[in-house]
Amino acid sequence: MKKLFLVGALALFSAVSAQEFKPTAGDVTVDLGVAGGLGNTTINLPDQGFGTGAMFKARYFKTENIAYRGTLFVGNTSETNNLPNEKEEVNVYGFGLGFGMERHFTGTERLSPYVGGDVLLGYGSMNIKSTEITTGDVEELKGPGVFRFGVRGVFGADYYIAKRVFLGVEAGLGLMYESEGDTTFKSTNNPDVVTKGGSSFRITPEVVTGIRVGFAF
To answer: 0.70 cut: is pTM over it?
Structure first.
């Protein structure tokens, strides 16, 4: 009888411990992913290469399997390049927002795979200024300001490395509407040149900020 009780207690303790790794109904998770910028990771709307930045994601679990999600990307890159007889200053900035839902599957004790979707919007712009050292002449490129709106389907997984602490990966496919503003080129010895922007739709595969680190509360 004592052995049976001990086995039952151990089984119950194991079940409770397993449940503690993953979020349950009413829990909130937050995670952070760092974007490497234009050349390192394909960061699309809302996190499309608007300079080096970071993506924050928060989720509210309505049930153990259904979660509402919100994402925020903020990015900025400012750098100065000293070229032969020229100094170049580059500034790229932007932000993005996303709102959506996830459906989580059973997975394993620590692994939580999911699929989901977002409605997304973002804005970014850039400015490049070149100064010739010997003459002091300046050339400056402003814009274009880019507005993006779209939807994205995602799939991913969270792996809980400790109690309610996880590493996450995510990828997906987005359909975006993109509108570009005007681009202005200014030069010390020449009149301004304005290039008109335009708009387009595009379908883009994406990896969202590589590996993320998160916590469940």
So the answer is: yes
